[in-house]
Amino acid sequence: MSQKLQNATKNQETVFVFSAHSDDFVIGCGGTIAKYAKLGINVRCYVFSYGEKSHPWMAAAEVKKMRADECYAASEVLGCNTKIFDLMELSIRSDAKLKGTVKFLEKQVEKYRPSKIFVHSKEDPHPDHKDVHALSMQLIKRIDEKLIPDVYVYSVWNPFEFKTTYPSMFVDVKDNFETKLEAMRKFPSQTVHVIFPVFLLLFRGFKDGFFSGHKLAEKFFLVKTSSITAVTAVKKKIKLKEKRLK
After folding, report:
1. Tally of CB atoms within 10 A around 128
2. CA pair distance 104, 28, nearest whole angstrom
3. How many domains does the chain divide into?
4. Which of 218, 221, 222 is nearest to 26 (CA)?
5. Which residue among 6, 108, 138, 166 is least enclosed by CB atoms within 10 Å?
6. Checking DSSP bridges between strand 150-154 and strand 217-224, what pairing results, if any?
7. Are 158 and 124 in contact (CB under 8 A)?
8. How many other β-carbons are positioned within 10 Å of the β-carbon of residue 77?
9. pTM to 2 decimals?
10. Is 213 helix (H, G, I), strand (E, B) or coil?
11. From first to last of its 246 residues, what are the pLDDT tens digits of the chain?
12. Distance CA 43, CA 34 (A)
């Protein structure tokens, strides 16, 4: 079960977001997704698992439909296109290998040439989030070097990053935070589970906003740099050295 992704218009910038479960992309970077979508960027979210184990007393098919409907409703609020892979929760990495998920994503990168990809942080304690991070890194190793975009990691369950020392990017989401909260409200089945994330994202929003000079912000770490970005950075360093020599 998946929502058909709409094609990007010619010369339209595209951004990919990888999400282990149906609500992770909203919690981790919903404000940024909403902001990019309003700017006309084609944001494409790939959800790896429905999270069917969230309601063990219900039939798996019913849970999948319920969580898919919620996910698509939230995606509509944010303005992104979403596809859900039917990978088994808590076995995402092995199931992805059997179903060729990374190969499919490789073709998606070749087709849309995203400028950025947002993925789970490996510091996130949930095993599915770690699996999606590992699969994302596999994907980056497979694709043509010329197609490698900037790769950023986002957090869901960890309020602080203690081991991540990569360059950080702060996105001002003051004007998009209410849209993020509205998207969160599209997950009624996760009411109990979402209470903590809502407080967490509010805390992170104000914390990251404070450190970046914004009222509310979302923080990401750049873990892989595209060849274009790398060349640009080198040129800037050369120009800076030339100025100092003058």
Report:
1. 24
2. 24
3. 1
4. 218
5. 6
6. antiparallel
7. yes
8. 21
9. 0.88
10. coil
11. 455 566 666 689 999 999 999 999 999 999 999 999 999 999 999 999 998 888 888 898 999 999 999 999 999 999 999 999 999 999 999 999 999 999 999 999 999 999 999 999 999 999 999 999 999 999 999 999 999 999 999 998 876 666 667 889 999 999 999 999 999 999 988 765 555 566 777 788 888 999 899 999 999 999 998 765 554 554 454 354 444 444
12. 9
- Residue 7 placed within a domain: no
Separate counts of helices (H) and strands (E) for the chain: 8, 7
Residue 19 lies in a domain: yes
**What contacts 177, CB < 8 A, 6 or more positions away?**
31, 205, 216
Query: Token pair 């997704």 is at which residue?
Result: 33
Q: What is the CATH number of the domain that holds 92?
A: 3.40.50.10320
Domain that residue 179 falls in: 14-245
2 in any annotated domain: no
Strands 81-84 and 42-47, how do they pair? parallel
Rounded Cα distance between 31 and 38, Å, is 11
Helices 177-184, 24-38: inter-axial angle, 10-degree rounding? 140
Whether residue 63 contacts residue 49, with contact meaning beta carbons closer than 8 Å, is answered with no
Please report which helix (H) or strand (E) contains residue 90, including its range.
Answer: none
Residue 203 lies in a domain: yes
